[in-house]
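Regression test case RT-17, inverse folding.

Input:
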């Protein structure tokens, strides 16, 4: 499963669901045989993908006679409240359903989102664009070459690398009155889980789909379901979103209430509520959303208090940079500058 090409990935992605479940269980078995059941944990966000993953890992435990499994939930404070509530209930549900100990550990970041944004900057557009803008906002003698690459698409050795060139439409953000950085994911999600892994000496089983983005696809095509170098297992990597929904439908597993009901429209599974449950205040990708898909408009309707906290507030700090204030995160000011409509039409 290492070094897949596009056709091989497509072939795997087109397999029927029951075959996919079997293959995923075999990958979990391979990973767990190496590290032992005490040496692995399921990274559980409370979202639909990791809910399916956890049910499958429990099935694997039953099949191979394991009586327990460790689960880590990263409590970033950026989850929908319904999701946070769901996590504990789902773990209890699975323990009863599979008659094994599903042991839940909660990990928390050292900093709040408000502190991360104030210190490092707001996450906007995408990780890549935020990283480029951070460097361009903070010129030093050490980052001359990388800044030149972002502006020209030419490396220090003269090689053309168009994919690293920052689109001109984002140039005005270099001089924005707020900091921009891609550090948020590291601080809020990666570092707490890395600490957990170090403290417990457990390796993660994660639920990420290759179809979810170019970086994930690239990583999956390179390593397959098990990245032995990074010591992580991604057994649903070759699943499609429709497989995840079909699994929920066929196995009648509960999902967080924020998703609403699972229905079938024109032969496709769809939730009546949120389709995805990432961090509620994240601005990555929101510039691409249209109509009913716009996350902040939806938030204004479903969670008006959280919406007000997120959009309102904000103040200038002693360096003249826009940062969150006691009244709120001040995202409205940032969204205005990346031309995202967040105002609910009444
Ligand atoms: S997804 Fe967005 S809000 Fe969540 S941790 Fe990453 S950058 Fe921060």
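Golden output:
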């Amino acid at each position: 499963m290492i070094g897949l090409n596009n056709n091989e990935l497509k072939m795997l992605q087109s397999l029927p669901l029951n075959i996919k479940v079997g293959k995923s269980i075999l990958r979990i078995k391979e990973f767990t045989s190496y590290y032992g059941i005490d040496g692995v944990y399921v990274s559980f966000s409370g979202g639909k993908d990791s809910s399916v993953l956890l049910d499958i890992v429990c099935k694997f435990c039953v099949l191979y006679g394991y009586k327990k499994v460790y689960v880590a939930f990263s409590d970033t404070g950026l989850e929908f409240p319904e999701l946070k509530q769901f996590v504990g209930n789902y773990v209890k549900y699975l323990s009863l359903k599979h008659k094994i100990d599903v042991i839940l550990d909660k990990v928390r970041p050292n900093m709040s989102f408000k502190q991360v944004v104030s210190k490092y900057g707001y996450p906007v557009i995408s990780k890549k664009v935020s990283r480029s803008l951070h460097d361009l906002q903070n010129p030093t003698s050490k980052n001359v070459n990388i800044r030149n690459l972002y502006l020209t698409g030419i490396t220090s050795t003269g090689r053309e690398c168009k994919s690293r060139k920052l689109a001109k439409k984002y140039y005005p953000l270099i001089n924005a009155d707020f900091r921009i950085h891609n550090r948020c994911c590291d601080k809020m999600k990666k570092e707490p889980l890395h600490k957990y892994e170090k403290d417990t000496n457990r390796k993660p089983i994660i639920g990420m789909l290759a179809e979810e983005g170019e970086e994930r696809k690239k990583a999956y095509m390179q390593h397959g379901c098990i990245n032995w170098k990074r010591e992580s297992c991604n057994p649903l990597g070759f699943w499609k979103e429709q497989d995840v929904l079909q699994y929920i439908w066929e196995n009648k597993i509960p999902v967080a209430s924020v998703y609403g009901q699972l229905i079938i429209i024109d032969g496709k599974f769809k939730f009546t509520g949120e389709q995805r449950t990432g961090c509620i205040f994240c601005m990555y990708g929101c510039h691409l959303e249209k109509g009913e898909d716009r996350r902040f408009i939806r938030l204004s309707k479903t969670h008006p208090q959280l919406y007000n906290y997120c959009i309102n507030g904000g103040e200038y700090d002693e360096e003249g940079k826009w940062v969150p204030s006691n009244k709120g995160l001040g995202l409205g000011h940032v969204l205005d500058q990346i031309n995202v409509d967040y105002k609910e039409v009444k």
